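Case study 2.
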Amino acid sequence: MTKIALLDYGMGNLHSAGKALTNVGADVIITQNPKQIQTCDKIVFPGVGAMKDCMAGMTKFGIDDVVKQAVFNKPIMAICVGMQALFEQSEENGGVACLKILPGHVNKFDTNLLQQNPELKIPHMGWNTIHGIDRSHPLWQGIAQNTHFYFVHSFYCIPKDPTILAARCEYGLDFCASVIKDNLFAVQFHPEKSHTAGLQLLKNFVDWQI
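Prediction:
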């Protein structure tokens, strides 16, 4: 059974994510202990809330260093703010330096752009479709183009390297919904809240062989 460290740094939806991972066959350990994280086969890096608090929580428990080290030797799945934290810089909270694992930055949805679409609100909250996925990749097995996933976010990632873009979504603009680079997989949406499709995606991660 795949042993997964679900990172607890005060910013994740740990109960829902842990239950969903258990349902698809993972042995889940909710932890903030760097040594315990290192013993696990894979890492899930969740996140909700403000980026400044996210980075402070990671630094407090040393999880920032653990994630940077694990990028070289373990499969990692980052969710929502966890995905945003992988990049260099976020506009949130007046500007926050992030983990700098991936080149790129995180911007807030442009209110002027959304004013042209009065039905759109910030945060982007609810079900939306993703597209542009490579269904030949093991992480997208069983996931169709234009599948619905559940989003809750006001900021979106802009990767500098277009080759890592693994899925896109439309919300006033076409934005990055997922990235894949080697053993690193990240999604802006919440698979643990996305019912059948979300469970399939989590199962694909649990079964993923690097």
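The chain has one domain: 3-207.
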